[in-house]
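step=encode ok
step=design start
structure_in=
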């Protein structure tokens, strides 16, 4: 195992428990190697600091596996996965079979996530350094979780390459066991949702919003709810099931809204009593404003970045624009429920975006509740990058 010296700043970060080594002038002097090799990190006196996974072509040049000297074996991986499994006893998973079993750095396996969808697992590797260990990972997952099948979600670079070649729209691959039904029905907080594990880029349900959907359900009885960037309608279903008077869902994708209607139906909620609008969010908000429509609750959980033929949205700057376009449609005393999964935007910066949007529209809002990801998405206190999800409930005064 090669020894690789790190600088004083990295030593301090490793001592604090941060799992990454970022490329710098010290790592440029490291011996050449292949992605996936195990290396020993040492200080200037050659003292052992940690065992890490080498990724020479990435900005994150090494990911810490253990402070001890270890070998990457099925047995070692089993221990890590079993620890993660025990940690989930703290998650509120009643009537829920869609959640995260392994949260990368938060569970001591940086660069790896594993999501559970009923009897199936979705594995994602965020670095090619794990590719050479895929067989070990698969074996350990089979032993600890005994799934019917394991899918591997492709990395964004891989999906972009596939899209460019127009070879497939399937963004995941079955790597073990039997294929899942299409669609596969899963349960969250007692409600049913349809997912497609072949489309691993967006299976149809984001488990990290589970607790936030519960929060929404406590506030919607008898309310008129507008859900922007509705995707397959998970928040819309939660609102309707909890007693919202009417839920209006807007998304640019006709396909996703068709799935949203199906999600209503499998929960015995009549979709005809609610509203589904295929269109650009900003264009629809402008149209609704001319119609003088009003809502008691407006929520949005947009993608970090998206482009339509009419507009472009990104969390940076886009959130304030969205708030400014939304508040005129919200009743006084109504709730603005906003969310973002953009990792590089902190909660403080996100709240500034909300403030900027309120100032643009000439409205005043007060935040009454904030949240992040649920217990099955644990994050080390030494790894602030892992606290990515922002969920904010505000009142329009």
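sequence_out=
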């Amino acid at each position: 195992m090669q020894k690789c010296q790190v600088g004083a700043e990295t030593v301090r970060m490793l001592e604090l428990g941060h799992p990454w080594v970022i490329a710098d002038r010290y790592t440029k002097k490291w011996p050449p190697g292949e992605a996936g090799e195990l290396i020993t990190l040492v200080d200037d006196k050659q003292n052992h600091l940690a065992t890490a996974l080498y990724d020479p072509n990435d900005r994150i040049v090494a990911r810490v596996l253990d402070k001890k000297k270890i070998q990457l074996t099925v047995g070692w991986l089993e221990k890590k996965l079993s620890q993660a499994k025990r940690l989930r006893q703290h998650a509120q998973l009643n009537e829920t079979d869609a959640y995260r079993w392994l949260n990368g750095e938060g569970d001591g396996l940086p660069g790896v996530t594993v999501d559970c969808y009923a009897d199936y697992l979705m594995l994602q590797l965020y670095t090619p350094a794990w590719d050479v260990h895929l067989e070990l990972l698969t074996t350990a997952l089979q032993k600890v979780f005994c799934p019917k099948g394991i899918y591997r979600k492709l990395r964004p670079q891989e999906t972009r390459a596939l899209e460019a070649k127009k070879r497939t729209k399937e963004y995941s691959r079955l790597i073990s066991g039997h294929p899942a039904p299409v669609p596969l029905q899963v349960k969250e907080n007692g409600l049913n949702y349809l997912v497609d594990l072949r489309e691993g880029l967006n299976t149809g349900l984001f488990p990290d919003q589970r607790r936030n959907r519960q929060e929404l359900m406590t506030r919607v009885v008898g309310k008129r709810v507008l859900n922007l960037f509705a995707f397959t309608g998970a928040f819309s279903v939660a609102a309707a099931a909890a007693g919202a008077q009417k839920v209006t869902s807007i998304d640019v994708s006709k396909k996703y809204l068709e799935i949203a209607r199906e999600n209503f139906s499998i929960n015995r909620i009549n979709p005809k009593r609610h509203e589904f609008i295929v269109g650009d969010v900003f264009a629809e908000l402008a149209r609704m404003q001319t119609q003088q429509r009003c809502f008691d609750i407006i929520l949005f959980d947009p993608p970090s970045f998206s482009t339509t033929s009419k507009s472009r949205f990104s969390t940076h700057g886009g959130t304030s624009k969205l708030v400014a376009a939304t508040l005129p449609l919200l009743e006084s005393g109504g709730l603005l429920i906003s969310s973002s999964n953009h990792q590089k935007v902190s909660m403080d910066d996100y709240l500034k975006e909300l403030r900027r949007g309120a100032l643009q529209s000439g409205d005043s809002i007060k935040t009454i509740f904030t949240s992040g990801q649920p217990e099955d998405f644990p994050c080390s206190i030494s790894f602030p990058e892992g606290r990515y999800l922002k969920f904010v409930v505000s009142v329009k005064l």
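step=design ok
step=annotate ok -> The two ends are 62 Å apart (CA to CA).
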